[in-house]
Amino acid sequence: MISKRFPWRIFSLSFLTQLAVFNALYGFIFLLKGMPWNMYYVLLTSVSCLVSTLIIIKPVYSLFVTLKNQKADWYREREESQAFLGAIQEAVVTFNLDQQIVFFNPQFAAHFIGENSSSKKRKVNQVFNQPEILNAIDEVIKNGQSQKLTLKLPTLIDSDSRFFTISLAPVLMQKNQELYEIVAVFHDISDIKKAEAIRIDFVGNASHELRTPLTSIKGYVETLREDIENNRLDQAGKFISIVSRNVDRLIDLVNDLLNLSKMESGTEIRLQYFSPLQLTQTVVGELALLAQEKNIVIKSFSEVSEMNADSQKVEQVLRNLVSNAIKYIPEQKEIQIQWKNTDQEILLVVSDNGPGIPQEHHARLFERFYRIDRGRSREAGGTGLGLAIAKHIMQGHGGSIEVRSRPGQGTQFYCHFPKKG
User: What whole-number distance in Å separates Cα of residue 112 and Cα of residue 157?
Assistant: First the structure.
């Protein structure tokens, strides 16, 4: 849009330029022909320049304003595009037909070339050496068709390679539809792949955990049936006890699976005030017989008189931690339960002086069905879901659970409950 304000600057520049040129030209002609200088020609030149300037000022100024506006629009569009590409989570890069990088957003830099790198002169094959990517780029350049592939690539933000869905699309000129650039979008699907692997592991582990007691039940029931048919009942009581234990194990496993499913689906946390010490005494009383069988001493301490949380779920967390400790530490050891009060949180610490847990198991200890020693865990009667349930209960409270342990130095589980009004 042209401003209504008269362009004095352009007018003056145009007028003085023309005046200087014409006067110099007339002066040269007069000097060449030996003619005397006449002010009439100066006046005539000035008027001519003034008229011509007034005639051309409007289209010249219009062109000037148009070009200026187009330049401003182009800069604004470029800034908006770069801001948009910088805001999205995907890594984006564009390169020309020589496969020389033209533009990349911060996400691409962080993943593949370093955040401090500002060089755009490098080529694609200097960043990626995977044949799948280079061949896909060649196909786009050759056929002008989009390409899509899934690939595992090393990145600068993670020590492990990550999975990406890579989309390569041609960029065509508006006038003649000729290919002049290629844009590549890298969508990180590592979390999706991880979730898929966890799901597959869960199905496999759950099937295995269910199949083991069912196989045992089936075997003993068939044996018992044959004994009854042959009037051999001396082992019947033993077989029925084994079947009963396996049925109890199945019930525990199904209940834990249902509890875990409720936790993962976002079961409502019912907040209420209760005494942590009284809750602890209830759990210790329920597990006292199991502890006495191994001569394990359980001690509890509390500096918290009252807390606001879901008492049933907190009891479940405490029961899982204490029962695990009883099952897996040797005889004549000790378990301590401590409730600590800080400015920001209430801390539950369940510790033992058992053999400890090696560091390599800590990261996966709260996964479903993860066991340090599968044979020993099954003998102890665990389902492999107790710590996973405890983790989800803590997350439901807005808190967290962690383990600290070293071989030979016992194990400590820390449950962090944020204070709630």
Answer: 9
Q: Decide the pairing of beta strands 297-302 and 334-341.
A: parallel
- Residue 100 per-residue DSSP state: B
- Average pLDDT rounded to a whole number, residues 140-150: 89
Instruction: Judge if pTM exceeds 0.70.
Output: no
Distance in angstroms (rounded) separating the CA atoms of residues 394 and 398: 6
In angstroms, rounded to a whole number, what is the distance separating the alpha carbons of residues 170 and 280? Answer: 65
d(CA 49, CA 11): 11
Extents of the domains making up the chain: 8-84, 88-188, 191-267, 269-421
CA distance 354 to 206: 29
CATH for 269-421? 3.30.565.10
Collapsing DSSP to helix, strand or coil, 418 comes out as strand
Rounded CA-CA distance 354/325 in Å is 8
Q: How far apart are CA 82 and CA 103, in angstroms?
A: 9
The tens digit of pLDDT for each residue in 223-263 reads 888 888 888 888 888 888 888 888 887 887 787 777 777 77
